[in-house]
Amino acid sequence: MVNDKFNNLDIAEGSKGAGTLRKIRTRSWKLNIKGKLKHFLWKCYSDVLPTKTKLRKKGLLVDCICQTCGEDLETIEHIFFKCKKAREMWKAAPVNWELTQVPNTSFKQWWIDVCSVNKLEVSEARIELTTYLLWWLWKARNLWVFKKAWMPVPVIIQMAQRDWLEFSKRNCSTKWVGQ
């Protein structure tokens, strides 16, 4: 079922976009990360993550302003790059992607850029840890939205690193994160 959705996305993107999506899909699915994180990534770069703006477009009467910072519409780009909490996390995170600083970049384009980095220039471990950081930022957002419980940025980073290291050890793949 997921593969069918990927193929439909490829067709919708046209021939050049289809090749790019196929490449990021392939690299994403080969990452040594939990299956649910691969699915989460797919939702992110396919722009189907249930953000407030997406829910509004589906007809739900929700306030589209980010509940975490109250400063802007809650889009996927806002949650992961522009929100105050996201900016704090990327500043403190053990991986640095200059791409997170680029204004008006879609998540999809950002992920294409991340996945297009030469494997010799950046370890897969760096991309894997990045995925866990995104996942835990999403979980922190949900914790705040649904339970009004605040997860501090150091805890987000700590939990992401812990999950990544535990999974990596069990699956014997990555050993270091290069910047």
What is this structure, in a nutshell?
The chain is mostly helical and 179 residues long.
Task: Offer a few descriptive terms.
about 180 residues; mainly alpha; 8 helices; about 0% strand; disordered N terminus; disordered C terminus
Helix content, binned percent: 55-70%
How far apart are the first and last residues' alpha carbons, in Å?
36 Å
Based on DSSP secondary structure assignment, what is the total number of beta strands? 0
Can you summarize the main beta sheet? none
Uncertain stretches of 5 or more adjacent residues = 1-15, 174-179
Protein name: Ribonuclease H-like superfamily protein
Domain Reverse transcriptase zinc-binding: 24-90
Structural commentary:
The chain is an all-alpha fold. The chain has one domain (2-171). 64% of the residues lie in helices and 0% in strands. The chain has 8 helices and no strands. It has helices spanning 2-30, 35-45, 52-57, 76-82, 84-92, 107-116, 124-147, 153-171. Helix 7 (124-147) crosses helix 8 (153-171). This is Ribonuclease H-like superfamily protein.
List the SSEs and their pairings.
Layout: H1 2-30, H2 35-45, H3 52-57, H4 76-82, H5 84-92, H6 107-116, H7 124-147, H8 153-171
Helix pairs in contact: 1-2, 1-6, 4-5, 5-8, 7-8
